[in-house]
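Hi there,

I know you've been waiting on this one. I reran it after we fixed the sequence typo, so this is the corrected version. Both the input and the resulting structure follow.
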Amino acid sequence: MIVKKMPILQGFPDFETVKKLTKSHVLSEHFVPVFYDIETTGLSRNSTFLYLAGAVAYEEKNWQMYQWMIEDETEEPELLKIFSEFLQNFSCTIQYNGDSFDQPYLEARYQIHGLPSPFESLPSLDLYRELKPVKGLLKLSRMNQPSMEAFLGITERTYCDGGACIRLYKQFASGKKPEADEILMGHNQEDLFGLGKIISMLSYLTLFKEDYDVLNCEIINDQLIFTMEIPYILPAKFSNHSEEFYIIGQKNRVRLLVKAQNGRLKQYYSNYKDYDYIPSEDTAIPKTLSACMDKKLRRPAKRETCYTWFPVTDDFIQNPMKQKTYLKHCLPYYLSTLK
């Protein structure tokens, strides 16, 4: 078995940033996370095997990378045992698509070899699942790790992709390419470093979770411009729009431009199933009030028709609390329209 350990001197976020970004997912006050990524000879849990496991852990005020690679299939049980013992030191795992592939694959291999799973009481934070809401906002065509890295400006890799690594590992294990270990471990290292970059994208979720402050609101040519401050530095600038709004974010500032109509704004409501839409009034009202109306005058509200109108007054322009209330209701709707 080939074992490698090295410090990560740059390219990984500092520990406090990781802790802050994952604060809503931490199930214990004792926060000791481990990033990990695995390499296998295929997707099937029964007919392929694990040949490499890589991890990044915070030790002695520095991130350390660990890698274990077996030289042939007979060493897989030993690799599984070593990785299981390693995971005992941590309070949670952080991976990309790990809930759907990495962890189920490993659990199956542990079971096949009659070994206990190390994941039974180990919480998991799957960055792929967590970041799904930002796909439309960031105009991501795909959600795989290379696409996320490309959004962050990481467009080139030194080593081959996962599919080519499988073929290369088989050549390595057969003795045809004994020097291939450097390439295989290099690919895994790039995946691990990618996790360190991608986790910073959790900062975009602040817009979905009302984790922002309204700094300013002004009206210019019938457009309301909200300036928001978020508690993180965004890893990359973004912008997007629809017919109703335009949004742009950079560093720790996000600006939202919303079109007013005749000095009025729509106030959207997320619980649209509790409302009826009244076409003649172009407004939605609670079903508790519309129940007595003629059915021909009302229809069940949809997400896009569940709104009321309110005038944009000077009091609203000067009141951050009212602006935050408006954004609390409307920003989730606006973001949901971005596909």
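Quick highlight: The two ends are 46 Å apart (CA to CA).

Best,
R. S.
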